[in-house]
Structures are given as structure tokens and as C-alpha cells.
Structure prediction request, 839 residues.
Amino acid sequence: MFHFQSFDDDCTLEEEEGLVEEEDEIDQFNDDTFGAGAIDNDWQEEHARLAGLDERVRDEVDGAGDASSVDLSLSGSNAHSSAPPQPSSSSRLYPSIDERGGGDLAESLTHLILGSDPAIAGVGAASSDRSLRPLMLSGQTPQPSALAGQSSLLLSYQQQHQVMHRGPAPLSQDKTLMSIIKEVGLPNRPPALSREEGRDFSERVPPPRSSSPVIGSPPVRAVPIGTPPKQPMSHVHTQQNNHPSAIQHVRASMPLRYPPPFPERLSPNNLLSIASSPLSHSPFPAGVGPVLSQIQRAQLLNSQVGPFQRGPAPPLLQGGVGGFRPFFGQSGPRVGLHGPPLGHAPIRHNTTHLHPQHRRMLNQRMQNRGLGDHVGGRGVGDRKNRDPYSNLMTQREKEWVARIQMMQLQSTDPYLDDYYYQNYYEKMEKRQERDRDNRKEHTTKLITPQVAKLEHTYRPVQFAGSLGKLTVSSVNNPRKMIDAVVTTRSDDEEKREKQVWNKRRQILYTVEKMYSLLLEVQDFEKKFLQTPEHQRDALLEQHKTHMVQLYNSLREKEWDDRVSDKQCLMIMSVRKGKRLISRLLPFLPQPHAAAVVMGIARNLPALAKKDKHDQVLCWLVEPVTTVIQSMSSTSLTDLLQELQGSEGQLPLVLQNKFGVTLLYLILSEGERMQSSDPNCQLMDDNRWTELVFSVTRELLKVPSSALSSPLFTPPNLVSLFSRYVDRQRLELLQEKLQITSLTR
Amino acid sequence: MLFYSFFKSLVGKDVVVELKNDLSICGTLHSVDQYLNIKMTDISVTDPEKYPHMLSVKNCFIRGSVVRYVQLPADEVDTQLLQDAARKEAMQQKQ
Prediction:
């Protein structure tokens, strides 16, 4: 017999779609089809029985008199009391709308919907009549009672189940208004009912998969990714690192689950009826019975969305601490610093874990806000209790879906894939350490749990002796629609394509190429620590090649060791280029770096002119400082000479902020050399002295307006000048340059 | 994974998300996933309450495909690092 599934404890239709596998396997766990829910009784028998009840009631009702409010009765009894009670309710099964005589559309609709099932019809009439009696007696208007009847109708459908399975429901006989409220509280029984029927959704086991793990769905894991660790964190931390086979998914705390709402096994419909029944007494458009108002819907949605507000939600970011080793390259055995070499399986890292620094910040933030949000939290808490959609999926199903998403977030090389995030937080930590200086917080590294990747190759299912292969598409191997082949373009083609006729574009292209080399160089250190011993030489060679290539791009001709001015100038004319040089300088070996700085000094006026728009030359200060401090005295003298260069260069230099800073740096370095090392060669020839003289002359000559202030003033300039100039001039200089003997 | 990584670093910060239907939502970025779906907490609609139905909403989940802009705090972004990440991604693509 066709049982009305949709009014059952939950939307079984959805349940069926979720449970039925690709091959339409019979749902063995569907109780309605095969279990206790499917009682194979003859509908005619049952109907007759219920109709009999109905008849009994109807007699009483008719006796009471005003039967107009019984128009509700879905057995289609006549609204008029004058109508004789009909012997069989079958004729009342399908009430004609015109019976109403132009009555409420809502009522007739309800009749159509609910009345078409004779089972409901029968029972509905029976108990609704009983419940309606007190209403009639209390003289309420038909409309609200209609709605009350409706809601009690839905409830009474539950009763029908009880009737069928447990005998007549123990309804209290005194049908006052109080009893209706009791009935409204009735839904507590269906949970007991469903438990009995084995329809406990929290323990529902998904049906056995039709396809084998190799072909189909995500591999069945002993410990699903979502489970929290059993041991305390410290244990897992040490055991974590090198277990290729074990699945490690570690979380610091129990993941925030949606708390079980108060009536866990209620169907949405039930709750809706509860929600609507209090409203039934208010003048509502009758047709809206099981439909929620806008406000209620918002509330429901809120309560669903509410739970995740504090703390990361499971499928998205997760706070966790596990073992992490940044690995490079796509595959190949990777070895942690302590541990046996792993097999061929590449290790996958979970990138959804937060950096400990990040988590600390988040916690701080939450604490700050926690006090303010206290009141708000309570309000949501109330709403949290009523979550009608909480048990549509079992916990395992939810985890399965979350697992699929998380699988995509696993990567073999988190350092590469998650480059921005990891570097950002590393930098932040370094910054904080620098700021806090002596605090003994050791740098926390981001560690992600590692999951051994199981290789799945899809082999289409074959049956012996059959033609062709079946394709079972699932999450792991979706249907292959296009045969996409990746063709990498060779370098020649690339060169041809990049027919750079535009000079600026050429510059940018060069800069970008250099950048990629630079990034490789930057990562060299990290890589070096990761690679095993035998591969280190190769890596070193590679590194050297990169460096040579980088330097080559700065030189014009291959054999000439000098830095090409033209090239340098070209690169530095672009903002990106200046950045590049400033980042490149620390990596260059000393002679090369010195050559670059010389080139910069030599061409400073031109550079300054080009930089007028960007004003970013000052990026170079820091790396240049480092270079200068490691220069020898001769090269320093050379540098100063270069800076002064041709006639009239110095005034131009002085006009530019960077120029002045550079000058000061050179002078200060010279001074430091002289004062610290009495044997220094700075004074060997007169060059240095002469140069300093000319500098001071120039400084005094230049009007103050043409002198730009440097980024910073080294403290030992005064002592420098005091060596070379007399007191009067010294004072003038001091005033002009605003340097005092006190350190700034 | 570049922008997923980028948004991960912004979790916990205040952002304004402008959707393709012109609704602007201001709130704290709670989480993000690989599709750049966004979950936000403590939200408020930035424009004058042209959208009264959002008055009671405190948290929301926004599908990544409907986002037009995400306005970020400038000091939380390291542009140099972002450039480097983009370069690395481009290099990876080429290989």
C-alpha cells in the first residue's frame, strides 16, 4: 500500500536520494519499505475500522448539535448538521469543493491535500472531532478552529501511527483546551516511536557502498579525518612525523559540532506545525497553515547558522597542531630530520590548519570581543535549541562530505601551494620577535598533519566476456569527458612569441626573469636543509648557476666583469627593477655587490631624475648600507670618488634624498674605519682627505634649499668633520646640516 | 591556491564584501575555503539599511561565485609577498 512518506518523521524522499547508490541498490535500511514501518495491512480493512470509529464519533457530534465546525473533518462529512451521518466514509473520501458552497479556499485545499489519503482522512476525522468538540463548546469561530484542527490533524496523523502499532493512543478523555496543549506536546512521542522502529538517525549507518573503494567513493578510513585525537597533543606531536600509512588528522580541540537541538528526531513538518499552531489563533490567512512566516523563517535560519560563530567550523579552517615538514617538489622520498626514509608515496599536507601565531591572534581577538557579545550569545542560544534541520544527515555523512572537500585542500607541497600564508606569518613572527627582543618565545612553526596519499588508478569495471566497460563515476574519478593533454611550449617558441619591440616591455620582461631566479635563490637555503645528502651537491650547482645567470643579466658583455651601466640603468628605471636590485644585493658576493653599488653611485643623477616620479630609491638604502659596511677602504674611496664623479655631480647628488644618505653613509663608514682601526689604509694616499675636503666645500657652498634631508644622520659625522675642517667651518657645517655632537 | 592562501591570512580581520547583487556586507572574516566561499561573523550591512531583511542576521555564508569585491585592510596585506606568490604560481603553471 502506498504510504504517505512525506508526512512521516522526516522527508524520507530526501533520505532515499541520499541513501540510494548509483546502482539503485535496494535500500535495506529503509524501514518504511522493509522494516517495521511497512506494515502490510489491507487499506480497506483499516479504513473500515477507522471509519467505524468515525461513525461513532459522528453520532456524538451530531448529537451535540452545531456541526458546522466539523466541516474540517476530512472524511468529507457534510458541513450541515442536517446531513445524515453516512454509513461508510468512503463516499466522503473526496469532498467536493462545491460542498463548501464557496467556503474558504484554504479549507478546500487542505481537504484536497490531506483528504486524498483515506488513512489520514479516517483518523483525522476521528480525533479531530474529538478535539474539536471542546472548541465548539467554547464557542470559537470556525476559522481558528479549522486551523487548530489542521494542526491537530497533523498531530493526529502521528496518532494514527500509534494506533496502528501500539493500539489506540492513550488520549485523555477530558477534551478541554488544556488537552489541546497536551496534544501539541505530543510530538515527544514520535521520537520514542521512531526509536522503536529503528529510525534513529543519529545511529543510522550509511548503506554499504556498491562500488569498491578502488573505483569509487573516498577510501574508507578506520579513523575518519574528522575525529579528534584521543591522546593529548604532545604525544601526537612526536609520533606524527613519519607514518606514511597511518592517517593523521589532528585537532587541538573537539571540533565545534552543531549541538543537538531539543527535539532531535522531529521532522521539519512537525516542528512547523508546532510553530504554526500557536499562531493559529491569530487572524492569519488560512492557507498558510504549514508555512512559516518571514520572521519565523529568519529565526530558523539564524539558529542554523548560529552555531559556528565562535571558533572555526569543521569543514573550513581548522585549528590544529601536527607534524609538518615543508617539502619541495612533487614527489620522491622526503625525509624529515629524524626518521626513516618514507616509501614512494608522496606525503600530503593539510593546509587548513592555522599557524599558531594566527591562532593566538584570533584567540586574543575573541577574548576582546567576548565580553561585549555575552548578551547576544544568550539570545542565540535560545534559538539554537530549535533546529528542525539538524538530523537530515548523520554525523558520518557530514564528515564524509567534509572529507571530500578537505581532500582537495591537501597538497604535496604546502610551501609552494600555501606560499603566501606561511611566509606572511613567518614574517609576522620575526617582526614580533624583533620588537619584543628579549622575550624567550621560541618561534612557532606551522605544522600540518600529514596524510599518506593513496594512489587510486581508475580501472573501469569489466565483466568477463562482455563487450565494453562500465564507467562508474564517483568523487574520486569523475566522468572523463575531455581528454585534455598538456603541451608545454618550448623555449624557442616562447622567444618567438615574445617579440619584444617595446623597450619598456623588454625591461619588464628582463626584470621578471630575474625575479624568478631571485626567488629560486631565496628559497635555496630552505631547500638545502630539506634535501638529502646526496642531492645537495646538485642543488648547490643549481644555485651557483642561478647566481651566475643573475649577475650576467646585469653585465652587458659576458667577459667583462664590470657591471654594465646601461643594463643597470635600464633595470633601475622601473620601480620593479629597483625593488629587484634591493633584494638582489644581499645575495650577491662581495665584489659583485660592490660593483653594483659603484654603478649606482656613478649614475646617481640619472637615477635620481628617473626616480622623481616614483620616489622609491630609498628602498636601496638598507642593502647598500650592508654593502658599504663590508667594503674595504680602497673601494670606499673609490666609491666616494664615483659619487663625486664629474663636475657638478655632487650638487645634484645633494639634492636627492638618497644621494645625501649615501654620502653620509660613506663618510660615516670612513670615519668608523679611521677611529676604530688606527692602521687603516684610508689615509695612505691623500685621496680620501681630498675627497672629504671637496665634500665639505660643496656642503658649505650649496644653499640650504638645495640640500635635502637624509633618511638618517649617522652620529659620527661631527667627529669626521672635526678632523678636516677648522672650528669655524665646523660650526657652519653643523648648523647647516643640523647635526649636533649629541647622537640622534 | 594563491587566493585561498591569501584569504586564510586574513581570517579574523574585518572586511567588506560586495556582492554581485550590490549588497555590501561588513564583518569579520571567519573562514574561507578553496572555492573562496566566505563565512563571516558579526555582520552588518554597510549601506543604509536598504536591506531590512538583514537586520537580524549575525553570521552568514557567502558563496564564492557571487562575490564581486572584497575590501581589505591595507596594512594586513604584504604586496611584495603577494607578488612573489603570484610569480611562483606562474612558474608552477609553466612547468
